[in-house]
Amino acid sequence: MNNVKSIIASTIGNKEHGDFWEVHLLPKGLPWLLILGLGPLLAALIVNEAWLFALLIVSLVPMAVLIVRYPFAAIMIWVVVMPWFPFRGMYKYVYFAFHRLLIPLALGVVLLSRMLRLKKRSPVQLGPAELAMVAFGAMGFISIFVTGNDWKLIFALEDRFLVPFMAYWLIQFSNSQEQDLRRLIPLMSLLTLAECVVALVSWFAPQALPSIWRSGLIGERVMGTFGQPIAYGCVLLSCLVFIYHDAMNRGKGSTRRLHMLTFGLGMVCIFFTFTRGVWLGGILVLLALLYLYPKPTTLLLAVLVPVMVILLSGVLTHEFAHAYERLNETEEGANARAVLANAGKNMFYARPVFGWGFGNYDRYDWKFMERVRDTNPTEWQIRKGTSHSTFLTVLAEMGVVGFFLLYFPVIWWLLFTIKALPRLPKEGFWSRRLLIAMWVPIGVQLVLWQDIDLRFFYYSVTLFWINLGFIANAVRTCLQPSGFRSVGQVMPSQTANL
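Predicted structure:
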């Protein structure tokens, strides 16, 4: 038996088997299998003029080949495609293909490649942070059935948490580092420019905005293609930090100028969200960049601030008045939010350990609504009101146990970041400045999550875990026994305690 096992292991792991898989089966055999399997379906879709679905089918073959050769491409495709389609109507199928399937399939390819030893990759050990994520997913899955909920909530669990977790794991298992992040930043820059254009069009010429991106808040605040200003602010601020860091580590040239112009335009659009939480996030980003890059950031602000003052006192006087109004929220609006927040707090107090079960917040919150100060719950709040805080939602649905499991990876990698910082080089792209900069979007999102329940905005949540995945890789690499000489390179082994 031992001899049989050794023969199988050597056959799986030998170079000829790997070459056959990498050179012949995947790049040549897989496309033909997809063409033969999907051909009849594609023909039927074209006959029925289902062009969106036909386009999805056509894109499967090249995407499959690309992801097999370069799994991190799934993250890049996801970043580019996902912001443009709302989660409603026929566009739900875009979410099904690019959110529910793309990243999990890429992760499956990486895991299969590791199991068959097709490529030499540094081993990745599941540490406490990863195990906490597995435990949270299992807890959510079990709670759906224990509380008698509809089994279809599994898809909501996948969208809100499991796919973001898988994006983190994909970065871990593919050992994505400096080169992958550098490839991702230009896509972030293009995304930011496009989102700024959509936002400004929605403010100055809303009639020109396609119906797919319109919402009831048009004319009050800008939100790009995300339908919500705080979700829009989370995405924009997350991208702007990386764009700025990349610009600071480039020589003078067109790319650096484009990055700086993108950053300035992005900060203008942050103002146009007319949302105090997003403004606070923008201020935190500027303060962090002043700390990391004091001289260039001071020069940038010396140009940007006077320009904004001139515009606000001239052609943007209406916008300035609207911003002042938004800054001084009425007491009635504050009390209305207090009613909803109080309901979430009462739900948590009723079941503090394991909560009410995943997806049950809106099912029970109306039972806990009560008078707050001089404000009684309205009929709309009772029937349709929901949480305005990600933290309250998690505490109410999953209790202290779920809350701890969900945010433990953040605490874990923050502690090891403090340990890793002194071992990183001071200058350069992959440096301690980058590691600090990567924590800025994490902190901004944690601040903004107090004002909105981002469980409905999968893009910003997944960006959060993608960012944390890069942080984990940077810290793991830095804390290798070989020291900072190999920072940014693929390492032969991983530290066991991480």
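Summary: Confidence is low (pLDDT under 50) at residues 1-21, 482-497.
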